[in-house]
Amino acid sequence: MRKVFVIGGTTFDHIVHLPALPQPQPQTIHQAVFHEGTGSTGAGKALNLHRLQVPVQLYSVLGNDSYGDSIRVSLQEAGVDAFYDVDPHGTERHVNLMDPEGNRISIFITQSSETIEYSNKEIEVAIAKSDVLVLNIISYCRGLIPLVTASGKPVWTDLHDYDGSNVYHQDFINASQYIHLSSDNLTGYRNVMEDFIQKGKQLVVCTHGRLGATALTAAGEWFEQPALTQFPYVDGNGAGDAFFSGFIYGWLQNLPVQKCMQLGTVTAALCIGSEQLAHPGLTPDLLKAEWGKYYS
User: Fold this and answer.
1) How many distinct structural domains can be found in the chain?
2) How far apart are CA 280 and CA 274, in angstroms?
3) Which of 3, 49, 225, 243 is geometrically suited to a Cys-Cys bond with 261, CB 3.0 to 4.6 A?
4) What CATH number should be reported for the domain holding residue 220?
5) For all residues of the chain together, what is the average pLDDT?
6) Residue among 75, 64, 5, 65 at smallest CA distance from 39
7) Residues 15, 35: contact at Cβ < 8 Å?
8) Who's near 187: CB < 8 A, 6+ residues apart?
9) 170-203, pLDDT tens digit by residue?
């Protein structure tokens, strides 16, 4: 299978589960279920792809601190091939407040530096050895866009909760031919998807959480895919990255778009059943078996 290079996106996350998201008023919450560990979009994609036996390498930045050490160890123990540059600001950390429906308030209590002293040679080698590049929308990844663009290789990006006009995302949009995003901040998501295709993108996939996902190809074909809502819910963090990974797993095998959507849906449904960014039992065989239950 073709090799994927995932660029950017590792954080240390503190996940707090609440009966309901807090109202904007002073209050004390005396008890809450929580867990913490490796988070963010690059780690989520790399973990899911690795467990699906896709050759994958991850590049990110971490601080020289206990949080960075924890991320390094967790990804190494999971078997993910990764290398890092040092962020002088320390490891990025998030606090995610979650309700039982999977709604989230994300608080970035520290952020990565916008510019990094890149290990250019190692990054260039990783790009050269890869067939597909996944460019995540982290500030420090912006400086790598010239290398990504010059490679001439297929570039995927995940715009997450893009609102249709935020200029922050534009460099990543320009550099990519394949786009994933969510409709969280989009009322007219179909118009945005059509606009991307008209501007030369090859594929746009928009996820809608519990309402499923929509895809549009360069040929003008629309695809709809309902979510699988019968799976047990534990933690919704990482579900979008799991969907992305299941989708690209199918795309790397030249499967039809609808089946790629289904594989992404199953991977996401498995993900939300655990506290991890990827279901701990995820394998190609498990994905095939679960797909067969719902779509064969």
Assistant:
1) 1
2) 8
3) 225
4) 3.40.1190.20
5) 96
6) 75
7) yes
8) none
9) 999 999 999 999 999 998 999 999 999 999 999 9
The answer as to whether 293 is a domain residue is no
CA atoms within 13 A on the CB side of 47: 32
The Cα–Cα gap between 235 and 193 comes to 28
What's the Rg (C-alpha) of the chain? 18
Strand ranges (E), the chain = 4-7, 11-17, 33-39, 56-62, 81-86, 93-98, 104-110, 132-136, 155-158, 178-182, 203-207, 213-217, 222-225
The number of angstroms, rounded, from the C-alpha of 77 to the middle of its chain's C-alpha atoms is 20
CB atoms near residue 91 (< 10 Å):
23
Predicted pLDDT of residue 102? 86
The single residue listed with the structure tokens 């890092």 is 84
Q: How far apart are CA 42 and CA 37, in angstroms?
A: 14
Type of residue at 210: R
Residues of the chain with pLDDT under 50: none
At 157, which amino acid appears? T
What is residue 176's predicted lDDT score, i.e. its pLDDT? 98
Residue 174's identity, in one-letter code, is: N
> 268 in helix, strand or coil?
helix
Rounded Cα–Cα distance for residues 118 and 18 (Å): 39
Give the C-alpha distances (Å, rounded to integers) separating 78 from 10, 51, 272. 14, 9, 18
Structure tokens at 73: 């160890």
- In a domain? residue 94: yes
Residue 253 lies in a domain: yes
99-142 per-position pLDDT tens digit: 998 889 999 999 999 999 999 999 999 999 999 999 999 999 99
Question: Does residue 28 lie within any of the structural domains?
Answer: no
